[in-house]
Amino acid sequence: MENSGGVKIESTVVTEEPLISALDIALFVVIITVAYFWYFKRDKQSSSSEKKPYTIQPSSLSSIEQTSNSSFIKKLKSTGRSLVVFYGSQTGTAEEFAGRIAKEGARYKMKGMVADPEECDMADLVEMKEIQKSLAIFCIATYGEGDPTDNAMDFYEWLQNGDADLEGLNYAVFGLGNKTYEHYNEIAIYIDQRLEELGATRVHEIGLGDDDANIEDDFVSWKEKLWESVCSHYGIEETGEESNIRQYKLVDCSEVLPERIFSGEISRLKSYENQRFPFDVKNPYLSKIAVNRELHKSGDRSCMHIEFDIDGSKMRYDTGDHVAVYPKNSSELVDKIGELLNADLDAVFSLLNTDEESSKKHPFPCPCTYRTALTYYLDITSNPRTHIMKELIEYASDPKDQEKLKLMASSTPEGKKEFHEWILRDNRNIVHILEDLPSVKPDLDHLCELLPRLQCRYYSISSSPKVYPKSIHITAVLVNYTTPTNRVNKGVATNLLAQLIPTNDELPQPTIPIYIRRSQFRLPPKSQTPIIMIGPGTGLAPFRGFIQERDYARKEGREIGEMVLYFGCRKKDEDFIYENELQEYVANGTLTKLHLAFSRDQPEKKYVTHLLEQNADELWNIIGEKSGHLYVCGDARSMAKDVHSIIVKVVMEKGQMTNSQALNYVKKMEQQKRYSADVWS
Predict the structure, then answer these.
(1) 644: which of 149, 285, 387, 611 is 20 to 30 A away, CA to CA?
(2) Is 201 marked as a binding-site residue?
(3) pTM of the predicted model as reported, rounded to 2 decimal places
(4) Of 120, 366, 368, 633, which one is the catalytic site residue?
(5) How far apart are CA 92 and CA 100, in angstroms?
(6) Which cofactors does this protein require (predicted)?
(7) φ and ψ at 389, to 5 degrees?
(8) What is 531-679's CATH number, 3.40.50.80, 3.40.50.300, 3.30.1300.10, 3.40.190.10?
(9) 91 labelled as ligand-binding?
(10) Looking at the domain that runs over 72-234, which CATH code has it been given?
């Protein structure tokens, strides 16, 4: 036998043994016992598993709990409801509008429910006719380049590919869009028309909300006429009862263990401590800030170059994608709400849906503290909508404050004017309202129920994964501005990012939750295809990635096509971002032409659109004669529209076409992905 000291040899005595020893008998008994136990135990487990199926418990108290059946029809029937309001929402507004409609249904003896089409079997729409005086309403946003929202994608494809008989289905549609974009409310318009084609009955004409103007006004005006049409169609009358019933009830969670309390996670409890791939909108990656540097050379404005470290995350991105950043509200604003309402922000609470059939049990991850809710989950910096004004009335002790809120909550011309001037024009958020109407003291849990969710912010990625596979770069302007009431409003995300400066010592680096959103903004498949890029200001961001990718291909020895960039800013010596990089790409031949417009370096302002008009021959040579691609990134309201007009004009003149032919040519370019836009309003 071996031990630590070496080898020890023991003397042995050899004796004659019987054929079957006591040890053999013992082993045989053990084997028989184990076999018997295994056989009957397995049988018992098998039978018990048939009686009690294995279930996976939700990983967090806030996760969306679904019933065992996705049939919204069964829910409607079992709860005596006749109204269902579906929403297709990317930022939460459509969901909010859906909730308001469902709540108002009670005034017309139509008990309603809100439903996410992603969680429902939408084929059950054919059974709506089985419910007396039933109505389906769709609040649908159009997203990106005329795309359905993520949660409405399956429903949209079902409508496109299916041929269900929807005779007997009564419906109405309200669309949420933005007129600065080409595909204004395209998805809502399609759904409205397609439902009719499949035999459904339109109870009220489609409503089109414009977020570039006043979508709240559009919605309220449409909603009023909707109920008039509903009364006429079903032969019913308004009860006149105002429904101020709370959707959520307050639950005291002071006894909940600390490890069961949310502290800013989006969905899964402790997800930032225990990160799990894949990362997405409900499970963001907590990225370290690797670089945060100023790009502007002088002046009172700031533009940041920020690099998110994704090394080890397994996250992959493509040039042209977007990165979503989850911000948090400033502690100053959060503390101000606590001060104005004399509330304990560190009290732990939960909001539980009073509708037991609803799949959405909480408005945000619960339980948490009020401080956490106001910091991470609720939007406290945007302009509140009219329904919040209405809910605040009961909390006003001063008659003057009451009357002001009543006026702004009304749909009268005077009320709309007051809301537009006092809320929208003066740019008041909920903190400003509570400051300027000091007698208004809402219960903090009710306020948390009313406020919309804080949304992530999207940024065009300004790097190429070929060159930077372990990091994601963005280019962001710091947002700060003074309102008509002499308050300084600060951009939620950019002001947070400005504070996240990496250190050079052993201290932990600052972090922020992110995920990658795929985009259709892509370089041509062939590197030889010539391209024109138009990106003033931070519109340069995705083109920095495009240029990096083509430069990488050139260095690998591949042939690359012409790359023409139009860039503009105010002053060359102030906000010409990435100047040295761009000049280097020109010098090494990756960037064929660099057209620069500095709007304030001369008496007459000069923009990229002026340069585009001057270079009509070059433009037509690339997009007309060489079938190249054209890209636009930046402001949708004016710049992108002006560029589109110039493109059509150049195609007309250089291509010798009529206006109609030129418009069709440009439209075909868009369909072929030869004309792409990544714009915002």
Answers:
(1) 149
(2) no
(3) 0.86
(4) 633
(5) 13
(6) FAD; FMN
(7) -55, -40
(8) 3.40.50.80
(9) yes
(10) 3.40.50.360
